[in-house]
Amino acid sequence: MRTLGFPFDDLTMVFKDVAEPLYIDGCCHVNARGSELMIREMARIIHERFEQGQQCPAFD
Length: 60
Fold this sequence. Notes:
Number of helices: 1
Strand content: under 5%
Shape: elongated
């Protein structure tokens, strides 16, 4: 996606400073608190890009 000009953000470090359990399985599914942290980070990034006037490329 990045090579096509789409914004990409690595959110793997979102939980690095959180001690409480966030995963509900041994794979990758998070609980409500984990979802909240991810959503807040995604909203922060989107807001930052919006304020900077960034846009996604159009689909052809």
